[in-house]
Amino acid sequence: QLFEVRSFDPEITLVRQGDRAEEFFIIVTGNARVTKRYGSSDASSAREQAGGASADARADFPRGREHHIYTCHSGDWFGEIGLMRSQPRAASVTTVTPVVALTASPESFQKFLDLGGDQMRHKMEAAVKNQVRNVLTKIPLFADAADEFLELVCERVRFREASSGETIVEQGDESTELLVLASGSAIESLE
Question: Which DSSP string do the residues of 131-152 spell out, in sequence order?
């Protein structure tokens, strides 16, 4: 059995931003709201976990406050990116009405992709890339980038969160990655 049918009452948090991805969800009936805190969690696509619609990751949202990004309806899915890229949840999803959902563990989700073959895997990977592209094109560095370049970046980009006051890079450390600030602000200090 790939999916478990589960019912949730209103105001139940299905996934919390920053938590480890442990399930994939398909909404069968009901509605759930997708919310994101900017500046206090990761800078990935605000809509990333909600089934492939357009992202609204905006750096001008007040930091630390929760913002409504999208409402999931019957047929929407979320959780694929966290499972496919081994990343923490990019947003929180909370039921608004009673919800019936199909849920899959990481192992069941992998079996689902395997059974769906190349077409299903391609659809999920395309949804992931679409969300990453939507975030990247909101960053000035990538806003006018060629499609071929964005495609390469989308395959390699990883989003990570940094808490307020956290040191992101230490002076003198070996450089192993390009860091691009997608939202929030940072202070550079040299010793």
Answer: HHHHHHTTSGGGTT--HHHHHH
82, pLDDT greater than 60: yes
Are 38 and 66 contacting, i.e. CB atoms less than 8 angstroms apart? no
CB atoms within 10 A of CB 163: 9
Is it the case that residue 54 has pLDDT exceeding 50? no
| Sheet with strand 92-95: strands edge to edge | 13-15, 92-95, 32-37, 66-72
Question: Strand, coil or helix: what is 69?
Answer: strand
Describe the chain by its helix, strand, coil percentages, rounded to 5. Answer: 25, 20, 55
In this prediction the pTM is 0.64
Give CA 8 to chain center in angstroms. Answer: 22
